[in-house]
């Protein structure tokens, strides 16, 4: 599977799209480079939410590896998103090109760093990594696979996935989420949310017995993408997703002018709900206009 990203991640193909090496190589030859910003945290969250789920071809019993290729420093919190993946048993390899931040690569990558972090001066030099990286990836898959996995059903469905996400009590800076738990109670929930037009993702971790959350300190008049993931000892169930927008801030109304004098004016208005201060701007009318 492959996703490209700038300020907005884009899935190029899923894990289940192609079944042969030749098909993947042909898809790579036809790939168009996506320029733009470097929101690596948002991209890693996209991979977790969109690409590493069963209906995208991810198998619960299979090892999960993510290879991050970047030529710049992230403009959001890549470390937090990477830690979320690593906490779920997903191994991250970080490859930097040109202006990549090596310290950030080491934060994002899984241990041991001598096997998972690579850095080259330019894109043509990536070819020098192919042999070693292929051998390391294969060895890591065999090593992790030999340890065995817990007896968890491959077909998630309602067994491991929550349903019926409801969003209520929406204000300019908060909203309330509720959902129906899966048939098999999870160990915990991960709730990830971020503005749909780009920005740092945030997450909340809840006990598996809880099935509601009040989100606060949101930005007004903003559309948010929301995901609820059930987390088990050796797997993550399919995420429950939703979209909701916070309300715009309320405005003062019914502006009235009174008590005019040669150097003063009294203004009055109906209060704006939730306002803690008002900013009053005053300027002289343009030349020739009525004062």
Automatic annotation (TrEMBL):
Coiled coil: none annotated. Pfam families: fn3, VWA. It comes from Tricholaema leucomelas. Signal peptide: none annotated. Keywords: Extracellular matrix, Secreted. Residues 161-250 form the Fibronectin type-III domain. The lineage of its organism: Eukaryota, Metazoa, Chordata, Craniata, Vertebrata. This is COKA1 protein. It is found in: Secreted, Extracellular space, Extracellular matrix. CDD domains: FN3. InterPro entries: ECM_Assembly_Org, FN3_dom, FN3_sf, Ig-like_fold, VWF_A, vWFA_dom_sf. Residues 1-133 form the VWFA domain. PROSITE patterns: FN3, VWFA. PANTHER family: COLLAGEN ALPHA, COLLAGEN ALPHA-1(XX) CHAIN.
